[in-house]
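Supplementary Methods S3. Input chains for the assembly prediction are listed below.
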Amino acid sequence: MNNNWMKRQRLLGYVFIGPSMLGVLLFFLIPAAYSFYLMFTNYKFMNPTVRFVGFDNITRLLHDPMFYLSLRKTMLFLMAVPVSIAFGFVTAVILNQRLYLKKLLRGLYFMPYITSGVAVAFVWMLMFQPRQGPINGLLRSIGIDNPPGWLSTTTTSMYAIDIIWVWFLLGYNMIIYLAALQEVSTELLEAAKIDGAKRGQVLRKIIWPLVSPTTFLLLITGLIMTIKSFGIIQAMTQGGPGNSTTILSLYVYQNAFRYYEMGYASTISWALFLIILVITVLQWIGQKKWVHY
Amino acid sequence: MKKKSWIAGMTTLVLAMGVMAGCSGNGNNVKSSSSAGGSDAGASPSASTPVKSGDTIKLKMWGGVPPEAGPQTVIDAWNKDHSDIQIEYVRYVNDDEGNLKLDTAMMTGQDVDLYVNYTMSHASKRVESGFAVDLSQFSDYNIDEKMGADAASWKINDKYYGMPTTKSAFFVALNKDALDAASLPVPKEWTWDELREYAKKLKSGDDYGFIQNTEPYVDPLDSVLSQQGYTKADGTSNLDDPGVKKWLETLNAMMTVDKTTPPLGEQLTSKMPVEQMFLSGEAPMLNIGAWLLRSSNNFTDYPRDFKIAFAPVPRLTDNAADYVTRGGLGDYTSINAKSKNQQAAWEFLKWYADGGMAPMAAGGRIPASKDADEEAALESLLGDKGDTYDRDSLMYVMFDNKTPTFVRSVPQEVVDLRSQEYEKYFLGAQSLDQTLAAMTSRHNEFLKKK
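Predicted structure tokens for the full assembly:
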């Protein structure tokens, strides 16, 4: 009888997750499987003739210089994540102290995260404007004669986007760190103080290790989210100037919705998936060395 | 924004294809019994009722011009006189997303009866996929005769799968007052070297002498390549043609040496409002097309105190006889092969092309048909602002210039790879030779995979 009850409970569980599983199935699993199938076809959107091409798309990918270029750009883009986490940590530590207008400042730092991405993109475009923009205006006023061209040159554009991305992720990282800091037991901090530890030491030897699970979480989710994002780049540079900001996810988008090359776009998507997987697995292995639970 | 991930993208795509698979299963039925209300009509209930005589036929026309810039007036005029055929205008934005929306609508069997193509590469994709009716099946209208010799550049596999309806003029708009002050004549034919001199003479202070809309930016290349061929005799890329080199060098010198035209990187990233700069008198020359009239007639948003004159787009070749200019005809209007009311759509299309579209001229779109009233079109083109234009040069670039024309028909991939490489050159990130080498090698890659 007990066994029967268990069975019923389990069944009930499935009933409850049913609706959301249906969503996952319809909007994620089936499309993912379909794109896996498309990887081996020459399917072009609109074109009714679909032919199996075996591994042609994969060979093409491996010989596509644009793929390697956008892979490099993606890595540059990902650099923003650890930098933003570092800033997030520092900001959280500062805002966790007794500080005037603390609540307001917390809110301000979080603002970017809840602002519309395209609006953000346009404001930054104005700020980065090489001739009349306020950023270069400021740089000139403090005596830098040749301020960088930011989004308007091929060498600086990706870094300009990194700056925006650091700023964009900062609020979220800070909020999560603030929550983690509440968990740090005051006894440990007081004990350290009594033993004569300096502020820097407390930060490095006690707080940082104690929030390391949070750092790990932010790193994994941040990298995954960043590798998939291209909206801000599409809004600002469309991958230019030249192809200096064409990251992989944007390259997928261009192939699929500009050139209608669905087969090839699926192939790049799966390559992207593999890259995320490898990065995540590597982090999972690496975490044993520095994450303390 | 982070939600706009590739997963979401793929999902949309796959869903669209799922629906398509459902339709293509009975796609053949639809073709063989085109007016019988085929089984795919289930996708859109409003289209599922077979047309009986006496019923009102409802048609949907998709186009990229904002309704208020002409189309609504056109449609209203037709609907008033034709109670049996009612047209509804659906606007799509003519960019990647907008074209995708139109293509998806057609693939999923939503009602699209007529649609306007703005580039050859979009049109030919739609023809390939069987979404355009071969118009030669209607014998009561001779496109070649009505539209003139320029129409032929819109033939796909030697047939018309759409009707080119407008004269699309591309030109360099000139600030006549500034030209007069520098005592420069309005040219009727000129080279890029001459334009460069003009720009130098017209430049004042830190302002530019010449600016360009990004749409016709690359036309000089296509002008040369449509003559010399995109590929050499051996089938390899011809993107290193001397004309291409000449264009790159000239513009680069104007950007970096003369500083008469904005550096491309700056123009792109600041989304430079070139129309506004020209109409406010800040820059005296603007490379653009007939859609400039939409803004230049609008004195509320673009107040202006000078006369506009027009010159043809300059040529790269020394010999005027070798020159072809972009233009000819545009707004290639097709009838959806999946439409159940093709005959009705055809009736409308004929009326539209033969002058029904005249109100569109207010936005710079002049009817191409010889039966359309030129004066009426010109009147709605200029509105009450006629005396703020130099009439002679306007007539010349719109109607009287007999330079042969081409229609841009190069695939999007090639347009993109070219622009990526020349952007790098104009930004000083690579040399001229590197640029030409990169263009040709990427073009060769593209040719190989076709």
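Chain B has two domains: 16-168+328-399, 169-325+406-449. The CA atoms of residues 221 and 244 of chain B lie 6 Å apart.
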